[in-house]
Amino acid sequence: MTLNKDLLDILACPKCKGDLRLTPEEDGLICEKCGVAYPIRDEIPIMLVEEAIPLTAWEERRPAREPRES
Ligand SMILES: [Zn+2]
User: Fold this and answer.
1) What is the pTM of this model?
2) How far does residue 3's CA lie from ligand 1's centre (Å)?
3) What's the gap in Å between 64 CA and the centre of ligand 1?
4) What is the domain count for the chain?
5) Which domain holds residue 37?
6) CA distances for 49 relative to 20, 35, 41, 45, angstroms
7) 7 C-alpha vs ligand 1 centroid, how far in Å?
8) How far is the CA of 31 from the centre of ligand 1 (A)?
9) What is the pLDDT of residues 1-57, one digit of tens each?
């Protein structure tokens, strides 16, 4: 199961209340405005400012990531 669109519409950044977008891997929610990603653990988005990961650090978590073929 992945997060559905309805849930995504309800969720907002706890910092700026802005819109979030799902990462391509669907393992996090990104707030472009704040430049952070909120991790999704066990299909539950961790919507806590304290748990937010800076996007730079988020990208560095997967240095070996290959482009996904579609
Ligand atoms: Zn934000």
Assistant:
1) 0.79
2) 19
3) 27
4) 1
5) 5-60
6) 13, 12, 15, 12
7) 17
8) 5
9) 566 778 888 899 999 999 999 998 889 999 999 999 999 999 899 999 999 999 999
